[in-house]
Amino acid sequence: MFLVVSVFNKENLENVVEDLRKHNIEGITIVDVYGMGNIGFSEHGQKADFYPKVKVEIVVSNAKTRELAMECIRSNCQDMGHGAGKIWWLNVGGVERIRTGEKDEDALTTQIDKKIKNVMDGSCFHVTDTPCS
After folding, report:
1. Is the Cβ–Cβ distance between 2 and 90 less than 8 Å?
2. Can you list the domains of the chain with their CATH numbers?
3. Which residue of 9, 28, 44, 106 lies most exposed, with the fewest beta carbons within 10 A?
4. Nearest-angstrom CA–CA distance, 73 and 7
5. What is the mean pLDDT of residues 46-59?
6. C-alpha 12: how far from its chain's center?
7. Do β-strands 51-60 and 28-35 pair in parallel, antiparallel, or remain unpaired?
8. What is the pLDDT of residues 98-130, one digit of tens each?
9. Burial of 123 (0-12, 13-18, 19+ CB in 10 A)
10. What are phi and psi of 26, to 5 degrees?
C-alpha cells in the first residue's frame, strides 16, 4: 500500500479529481496549503514568496494503482512553467477503517460494493456492533 501525496495549483484540482473518479480511485483528502518549491529563494533573492496550492493525499493498495493515481495528477497539472507542483509517495504499513475494523485492502474498497448490511439498509451501529467493543 502507498500514500500518494501531491501539491499543485488549485486551478487543476477539479480536473484531477474528475480523472481520479473516472479511474475509480477514491478516498481523497484535499487541503488548501501555501508553499514554495526549490525556486523560491534562488530566483527571488532572500524574500520567500509562498503561493496558494492544494495538497492531495490518496492511499492506494498497490503499485499499479499508485502509478495510475500519479498519472491522473501528472496529466492534469504538468506544464513547463515553474510551480506546477510535486508528487511523492510513501509506503503505508497498514490501514484500518474505524467504523468496521476492516484492515488494509479491505479498508480501501467501496462499502456499497461489499453490500455491508449497515450501509445498504441505513441502520446504525450499536455498541455491540463495533469490532472494538
Report:
1. yes
2. 2-93 (3.30.70.120), 94-133 (no CATH)
3. 44
4. 10
5. 84
6. 14
7. antiparallel
8. 888 888 888 887 655 555 555 444 445 444 444
9. exposed
10. -120, -175
